Predict the 3D structure of the following.
Amino acid sequence: MKLLNKIALVTGGTSGIGLATAKRFAAEGAKVIITGRREAELNAAVDAIGHGAKGLRIDSSKLGELDALFAEIQAKYGQLDVVFANAGGGSMVPMGQITEEHFDDTFNRNVKGVLFTVQKSLPLLAKGASVILTGSTAASTGTAAFSVYAATKAAVRSFARNWILDLKDRQIRINTLTPGPIRTPGLVELAGDDSAQQQGLLDYLASQVPMGRVGEPDEVAKVAVFLASDDASFVNGAEVFADGGLAQV
């Protein structure tokens, strides 16, 4: 029970890495709050997590909704020990076709949302709390038609390096957890709705990974548990890869 009695927030916790991590956190003894933008998926995720998990419907890119989120956490729990700022996403648009709408949507979800999720959580964070930011191997490797998303994840990595200096007096640890290709709805949907195209994308990505396969959400969740726990008490400002070696060669 590595997270016994810790209060943990997982944004974007309704599917994929967020849901797998919320399940792991709850199994390790944490009291888990998840967020999501769609009510039906949020309710299904809360049922899947069990252990008294709480789901709150919010959009992390909207500051008023973040204020409501943290007000409710303050009233119900009084503090936070773990924040996994995981909400986000993106789509593939090649240079020459990038629109202002695409740019704003991707940066609002992945940069603005992460920044203000963490900043607005600060009054609730206990001394020695752990903050985990979701990165991406796209930030350190080149991917066609993915430049805007990659730029947002490079910004997230930079946040961790700088925020640990701002928060050093509170001993709050901030680390970036960087997945490679993971079999999540968000990944396969990059290939559209066609199942053959989705499998083709997974097969191609597996061929690029030294381990010869894509990862599973629970493999990333296990790393998140480590970063959230006291086992990682001297891990700070790091980028921890769970990528099967993709960005390491």
